[in-house]
Specification:
single chain; alpha/beta; Helix Hairpins; Rossmann fold; eight-stranded mixed β-sheet; four-stranded antiparallel β-sheet; 58% helix; 10% strand
Length: 730
């Protein structure tokens, strides 16, 4: 497995089985918190239950029919609705009865009957209360609402039985209240029926008087219409029949006249066309119809004879002969008489046409007048029908209301009820509340759930890195190993060289495991330069760097520790070497590497101190001289470990990460903040640094959370070299 360049700040891609198990283990570590919360809630529940007053219940069973028993026959209808076989109607009906039972009207009847408004015991007032305070409390109390809150209605399944339950601190009073509520409900039911009947009767009486007046007014309106239309002797139907016959007669006569007018018009038009076509020829009149009548025929014969005589004389005499002149004069006279007779025939035809047209006009007028009369009669008939219907409807409604009023007056005299008592309530001496056993069980279960919630909440609030799962799942880093907590009584120098001085301790064993994991990270290309850093100060970075160097030196490698923390260097104090010549001196060209490197009491382990503190550490680490220093050190040593400042404090570690083969992150168990670690890793990812993994430092193996995970390390001791608990190294 090789170190990789990645973005570990995003953490694991999702909830893995390891993270789930980690959460479960975290909850299990807090099992005593869960148990304590559960016991606390149970104790509070028990105390609350024991302080609650004992509540007793009593129940009265009623049989509720949809309608009361029928005494009158089916013709007499009551005001209240009739029974129906519809399922939904019955369901709504019994739901309505339940609301009536728990209504203020029923409760008010019980309060007034038993005087509960003055009953201090019922109202829950103290017995030794001051009289003035009691009077004020009685005035402010709501006994009706209090009683309603104690009433429970339980319908019987698939039956008409309704159970009225009442709860009270006194079992005898509970039974009394239950029976009184049932009685008050029956009384309220009957009173509701009587009120409804009385309201219906009052309304019907008012409506009856109004309908009577409307019926009389309707009859008078019909009478006035008959009188105005002169319908006392003849009905509208008869008048309509007479007018209809007259209209038919006029239509027939009008048809005949129009036929005659058409014939006369044709004759006159023919005469006019004949006269116009003849011009000055007087013989046109011979073709006129009627010209062959007796008188005209005689004139025509005389005209022919006279014309023949004149023709004969014209053959014998000259035109100026007296006889011929006389004959022509007579011929003109006869001719004028003939033309006058023919003209009279034409005038007669025109006169007959005008007469027929006048007759048509008169007939049209008579027909229009008759139609107008028919419309008036129809209008009167419509008005008469409307008034007659209104009068009939008013009369019918009057009779219906009168009959219904008589039925209601008769049914209102009945006092029957559709409710009867099946079983009266009896005092029950066993309380129904509080349910001690159930409350304790519920309190225990709720306490466990609340404890689980508290444990989960505490686990969610845990924002520090404390286990391998946090390193791998939250930060997305390879887990290199753990470093147990060292003894608090040891001096700082002893803690720094603890692995060397206690090689059989659990700390030394863990450091060797980390060394092995690092060496096998990239077996083909072993890391030569390694940066050890942390997200913040006081996380054991320098001590881990020393322990890791000791473990590598014990494997036969020549190891050089570089104190690149040029702000707070500590390696020279840990090994007791001078700090006058170091990295800062070599970078600026003062001294040599051989003189600056100091040997330690650990074989094969050497240290290069920081040297004098420079004013610009980050710029110093960027120089080519520092890179040359790393190259020279790499030629002389097998492993080079750089102790760098914290990542979130300064950028020195990020600069060093770009010049080393890889980076190891030191995380202090239970102290390093996850968000801070993510920010540190993000800064490394920004410079494309190679991450080898993380070391979990200062792990207290005695804690339950580590007991199962790192059980193998605890199996080694205790020995004379092992730590027995303490605080973290700095």
């Amino acid at each position: 497995m090789e170190g990789t360049v990645l973005d570990p700040a995003g953490g694991a891609p999702g909830a893995t089985s390891a993270s789930v198990m980690h959460r479960l283990r975290g909850v299990w570590r807090r099992r005593w918190v869960m148990l304590g919360v559960a016991l606390g809630i149970t104790a509070l529940t028990a105390a609350w239950t024991l302080r609650q007053p004992r509540i007793y219940a009593a129940s009265t069973s009623l049989i509720i029919d949809v309608t009361a028993p029928r005494i009158l026959d089916g013709e007499v209808k009551e005001v209240m609705g009739e029974e129906r076989s519809n399922y939904w109607f019955n369901k709504e009906y019994y739901a309505t009865q339940s609301e009536i039972i728990t209504s203020r009207a029923v409760a008010s009847r019980v309060v007034d009957r038993l005087g509960l408004a003055k009953d201090a015991s019922f109202l829950g007032l103290p017995a030794n209360q001051d009289p003035a305070e009691r009077a004020k409390a009685l005035e402010e109390a709501d006994p009706v609402g209090l009683l309603r809150s104690r009433i429970q209605v339980l319908p019987g399944k698939d039956s008409r039985v309704m159970n009225i339950g009442v709860e009270d601190v006194d079992p005898v009073r509970a039974a009394l209240l239950s029976n009184e509520v049932a009685a008050a409900y029956m009384a309220e039911n009957l009173a509701l029926k009587l009120r409804t009947t009385e309201e219906a009767r009052t309304w019907l009486e008012g409506r009856l008087g109004e309908l009577g007046r409307q019926s009389k007014a309707g009859e008078m309106a019909v009478y006035d219409l008959k009188k105005d239309a002169d319908m006392l002797s003849t009905s509208l139907e008869s008048r309509l029949s007479i007018v209809s016959e007259r209209i038919n007669s006029y239509n027939l006569k009008l048809t005949e006249v129009r036929t005659r007018i058409a014939a006369q018009q044709a004759r006159v038009d023919a005469i006019h066309r004949l006269r116009k076509a003849a011009g000055n020829d007087e013989t046109w009149a011979e073709a006129v119809p009627g010209a062959k009548d007796g008188p005209i025929q005689d004139l025509k014969s005389r005209y022919g004879e006279q014309k023949a005589a004149c023709a004969e004389l014209s053959e014998r005499y000259l035109p100026e002969h007296p006889k011929l002149l006389e004959c022509n004069r007579k011929l003109e006279v006869v001719r004028d008489d003939l033309l006058k007779s023919l003209t009279n025939v034409v005038r007669s035809a025109e006169t007959q046409l005008a007469e027929a047209q006048g007759e048509e006009k008169n007939l049209n007028k008579l027909l229009d007048d008759t139609k107008a009369e028919a419309f008036q009669v129809n209008k009167k008939a419509i008005e008469y029908g409307r008034l007659q219907r209104e009068s009939d409807n008013n009369q019918r409604l009057y009779e219906l209301v009168l009959k219904r009023l008589k039925d209601i007056e008769l049914s209102g005299l009945l006092r029957t009820s559709n409710v009867r008592v099946l079983d009266a309530a009896q005092p029950v001496l066993v309380p129904v509340r509080p349910h001690t056993r159930r409350n304790l069980l519920v309190g225990w279960v709720m306490g466990l759930l609340l404890g689980l919630g508290v444990a989960l909440f505490l686990e969610m609030l845990e924002n520090t890195v404390g286990s391998q799962a946090d390193v791998e799942d939250v930060l997305g880093l390879a887990f290199l190993g753990v470093v147990p907590r060292m003894e608090a009584t040891k001096a700082p120098g002893d803690r720094d060289l603890y692995v060397h001085r206690a090689p059989r301790s659990a700390v030394a064993e863990c450091c060797r495991a980390v060394r092995t994991n690092l060496l096998f990270m990239s077996p083909d290309h072993p890391c030569k330069t390694l940066v050890v850093t942390s997200s913040g100060p006081q996380e054991g970075k320098s001590t881990t760097c020393i322990n890791l160097g000791v473990a590598m030196a014990q494997s036969g490698n020549r190891v050089l520790l570089l104190d690149t923390d040029m702000r707070r260097p500590r390696l020279h104090r840990a090994f007791g070497v001078p700090n006058d010549l170091g990295i800062s001196s070599l970078v600026v060209g003062e001294g040599s590497l051989d003189k600056a490197v100091k040997s330690t009491e650990v074989p094969n382990l050497f240290v290069l101190p920081c040297g004098p503190l420079p004013p610009n550490p980050a710029e110093l680490l960027h120089t080519r001289a520092f890179k040359e220093l790393l190259r020279q050190a790499g030629e002389k040593f097998d492993r080079i470990i750089l102790d760098s400042p914290p990542l979130n404090a300064v950028v020195d570690a990020a600069v060093l990460a770009t010049q080393a083969d890889g980076v190891v992150m030191v995380l202090k168990a239970g102290r390093t903040d996850r968000s801070a670690a993510k920010r540190a890793l993000r800064s490394l990812a920004d410079v494309q640094a190679r991450m080898f993994g993380a070391i979990l430092n200062d792990v207290d193996l005695r804690q339950p959370r580590y007991g199962d995970t790192y059980l193998g390390y605890q199996g080694y001791g205790p020995t004379q070299d092992e730590p027995k608990g303490g605080v973290a190294p700095s």
